[in-house]
Amino acid sequence: MTVMETETTTSTRTDSCAGPRPRNRRPDGQDQYTISEVAALTGLSAHTLRWYERIGLMPHIDRSHTGQRRYTNRDLDWLDLVGKLRLTGMPVADMVRYAELVREGDHTYGERFDLLKATREDVLARIAELQGTLAVLDRKITFYADAGRALASERSR
To answer: How far apart are CA 128 and CA 125, in angstroms?
Structure first.
């Protein structure tokens, strides 16, 4: 059972994870992807996918009779969420902890909430910092645009 299957089968509410599904996926039930297909779909390397599995971020990937990994749409959904969490700057250890909490079941909702809320606060602080940086850039761009127009005006006299 994947992390996503654990999350949706142990809860009364389902969570779509990270957003709407991309269009290029196979229908559920026919969704057996190789590691190279998942790498192509996600932009992650096969090495990264194996590492995620090894550290517990992708704790269970089904295998074919020959031992090849077989990912499902749920695994892709989980990887999409992991990608979003990476973009927030969440440490890998916290992402692994989140995955562990999901596998542990509904009684961990409070801890998951706290972890995601703290990450959200970090993201908001970074956004505010970037907005301040953007304001400085905008002032500089305006300065140089005005200075350029003034210089061009002087030269045309």
So the answer is: 5
H helix intervals, the chain: 3-10, 35-42, 46-55, 73-88, 92-104, 109-155
pTM metric for this prediction: 0.75
| Distances, alpha carbon 114 to alpha carbons 14, 15, 87, 91, 120, in Å | 19, 17, 18, 15, 10
Residue-wise pLDDT tens digits, 68-126: 999 999 999 999 999 999 999 999 999 999 999 999 999 999 999 999 999 999 999 99
Backbone angles phi, psi at 136, to 5 degrees: -65, -45
At which residue do the structure tokens 């927030």 appear? 88
- 108 burial type by CB count under 10 A (0-12 exposed, 13-18 middle, 19+ buried): middle
Task: Of 83, 94, 135, 137, give the one whose Cα is nearest residue 116.
Answer: 94
